[in-house]
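Example (one chain per record):
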Amino acid sequence: MLKPDLFIKNTDTKGRGVFTRMAITVDTVIEIAPVIVMSKEDRIHIDKTLLHDYIFEWGTQKDKCCMALGYVPMYNHSYKSNCEYFMDFEKDIIAVKTVRNIKKGEELTINYNGDWNDGAKLWFGVAK
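Predicted structure:
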C-alpha cells in the first residue's frame, strides 16, 4: 500500500526524496511495503555495493538485513523527522506513519536510527 499522493523528486542536498502532493494528518500510515529478507552472509556482499546505503538491519537479533520495496529506501534521514517506520518481522513488511501533520509539497523523512526522535549520531555525517 502506497498513499497515491506521494512522489519522488530530487532535493537540493540529499539526492532523491519522498514528497507529498497533499497535506497529510498526524498518525496516517502512508506506506506499507514488503521486504526481501537476506542473511548475514548476503549482507557481506551487499555491503560492498551501492545497495549498502538502502538496506535495513532485520530481525529481533538484527542478524539479517532486508531490502524494502516501494518508496521506503527513498525516505531521507532527519533528526527532526516527520514520519517513523515500523518493522513487522512476522509479515516481512515495513510501515511508514506520520508523526505530525505534513504540509502539501513537504518532504517526508524518517530517522535512520529507528525512533523518529532519536538524536544519536549516525554512521555517516548528517547535520542535526
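Caption: The helical segments are 40-46.
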